[in-house]
Structure formats: C-alpha cells, structure tokens
Design a protein that fits this description.
Elements: E1 5-12, E2 16-23, E3 28-35, H1 40-52, E4 60-67, H2 71-78, E5 82-83, H3 86-97, E6 103-107, E7 112-118, E8 121-128, H4 136-146, H5 150-157, H6 171-183, H7 188-206, E9 217-220, H8 227-237, E10 241-242, H9 250-263, E11 281-287, E12 296-302, E13 305-310, H10 323-330
Parallel strand pairs: 1-4, 4-5, 6-9, 9-10
Antiparallel strand pairs: 1-2, 2-3, 6-7, 7-8, 11-12, 12-13
Length: 331
C-alpha cells in the first residue's frame, strides 16, 4: 500500500471548482477543473467523486485546504485543515515556487486581483469584483461576438498590425466601441489586440492603481493562458511577465501547501474522506435579528445536522459550541 502522504487543495470560485493533489515536496500530481454552473454544492460533490478516481491506489490524504469565495462551503462539505482567502493561497503558491517574485497579477472569470509581495510576505493587495471589463468573462463574451474561439483569441492578437483603441473603462462602453470598430471594417486581429490592451488598461487603472508593480511579475488565473493579454501587460509595464506552469490552479496549490503546514504542527486532519461526498448537503440562509447588524447567516446541513454556519459578525451562530443548540431552536 502507498504510505506516502498527499495533500488536497480545493479552490471554489464563482466560475469553477479546482482540485489538486500534491505530495510533501509540493509536486503537483493531479488537477481537475470543473465549471460550477451556478451549482457549487452539486458540482463540488461530483468533482470530488471524479477526482477520487484519479488518485493512486491506497492514497493517504493527510490534509486538505480550501480557498476561493466558496472556501467555507467547501470546508463544510469536505472538512479542511486550512481555510484561507485567495490572497493568502495565491501568495503562498507563488512564494513557494518563485520566492523572489514581487508582484502577482491574477485575473479569473469574474474578478481580478493584484498581490504585492515584499521580503517573502504579502505586503499589500487589491481586488476588483465590480467591473466586468477586467475579467475573463468579458473576453469570453467578446470572443463569442467576434465568432472567434477563446482558445485562439491570444494568438490572433499577436498577429495585429494596427491595433485599434477600445474604451476599457466599462464593459458596456468597450463592447459598443468594439462594434463601432467592426462597422468601420477594422481587421478582427486588430480589434482583438485592442480588447487585450483595453482589459490591461482597465486592470492597471483600477486594480493596480497606486500599487508599485515591481519584477518579478507573475501572471496567473485562467486569463494567463491568453498570449495577447500577456503581451499587452509586458508592453504596458515594460517588464517580462512570468506565467507559471500551473497558472490556472495556483490558488488550489496554495491551499494544499497551507494544509500541509497545518498538519506539520502535529494536528490530525479534518478531511472527512471521499465517502462523505455521498451525503445530501443542504444550504440555506437566514437573517439574525439579535442586534442592529442584521447579519445574513449561511448554514450547511447534512442529515439534519449542522456542519457549519458563517456570515455573522459576533460569532453567535458560527461558533462550534452553539451550532446544535441554535439549530434546535430554529426548527
């Protein structure tokens, strides 16, 4: 039987669920990317079931970490040893593999972020979750409008001879501007390069505003696969952009590394095992009327037992010792 210890990392975001398996030397052994399609619980369960079939025979899961906007949900379902935000997870992954990195550019499907690293720690960060013009979903929509497969988007941008100027401050204006350029007869590759430049300008003017962007600069997230965006960043910053081999799952890798560090402290893993994924999980939310904060509390249950609650500011509902007591009073 394989006695080596392995660690799971799970990144549940607004667009996808990423699951990775690493060993104690932080080598990536398996990874799986699945779109959430607005059903994070069902997709997470299905993804974990599929992932279990990829594991080595007798694989010993010694620890598990979760990250992403759905990290608390994932923790409730799988049982995590480290539950960390995306900034911490991405920072940990980059500092592990590129220890002299000083800036992380991260663009996903629905949001984007910048992480400033100094002296081996995260010293500053910013996130953009409002404007779609700086995210991968914006590129997906424009690629569909241009009838260009998103996989070819970046390579076509590199063929541009006279890139057009596209307004990038707002997704609505950018789309309108792009249509106008199409009507003018501009070449598709020139429009695509203009869109790449617009996304980068939007990112630097909003997310990167006021930040000191120093090399080494690491670019990750799903959009890092786009060669056109990488080129536009290099032109705008005048610096080489590094895209890690596993740019698309760096958050999950960081979560797995953080789980390993927790287990090294001598703790027993909280991972519930792949068999637990067969349980029926239910999610609901309610408004606490205990004070003027009126917190919206999210609750996850399985077999009428409360697995987790979060969203309260005071800890009344999320504290472990009150879970069953408060649950019975709600019934």
């Amino acid at each position: 039987m394989n006695k080596q210890a392995y660690y799971l990392g799970i990144d549940v975001g607004s667009v996808s669920v990423n699951v990775v398996l690493i060993d104690e030397k932080y080598r990536l052994l398996e990874k799986l990317y699945v779109r959430t399609q607005g059903k994070p619980i069902a997709v997470l369960k299905r993804t974990m079931e599929e992932f279990s079939g990829l594991l080595p025979t007798g694989c010993n899961i010694a620890g598990c970490g979760t990250t992403g906007s759905g990290r608390e949900l994932a923790n409730a379902i799988v049982g995590a040893d480290a539950v960390k935000n995306e900034i911490t997870a991405h920072g940990m992954a980059v500092l592990t593999f590129i220890p002299d990195a000083r800036t992380i550019l991260e663009i996903g499907g629905q949001d984007s972020k910048i992480i400033i690293l100094r002296n081996g720690v995260v010293s500053d960060f910013a996130m953009n979750t409002v404007c779609a013009a700086g995210t991968g979903s914006f590129l997906d929509r424009q690629a569909a409008r241009l009838e260009v497969p998103i996989e070819q988007f970046g390579s076509l941008a590199l063929k541009a001879r006279s890139p057009v100027r596209i307004a990038g401050r707002c997704a609505v204006f950018a789309e309108s501007d792009m249509i106008h350029k199409q009507q003018m007869g501009c070449a598709p590759e020139d429009i695509i390069k203009g869109l790449c430049d617009a996304l980068v300008r939007n990112y630097l003017n909003n997310v990167g505003k006021g930040k000191e962007i120093l090399p080494k600069i690491v670019f990750q997230g799903g959009v890092a696969a786009n060669e056109g965006i990488c080129k536009s960043f290099e032109e705008a910053l005048g610096e080489k952009i590094i895209v890690p081999e596993n740019y698309d799952v760096m958050g999950a890798i960081g979560a797995a590394i953080l789980a390993h560090k927790e287990i090294l402290k001598g703790r027993e893993t909280r991972f519930r095992g792949f068999g637990a994924m067969r349980e029926d999980f239910m999610a609901r939310s309610f408004e606490c009327k205990g004070c003027s904060n009126m917190c919206e509390v999210v609750e996850i249950t399985a077999a009428h037992s409360v697995l987790a609650r979060w969203g309260d500011r005071c800890g009344k509902w999320s504290s472990v010792e009150h879970r069953e007591q408060e649950f019975s009073s709600l019934a």
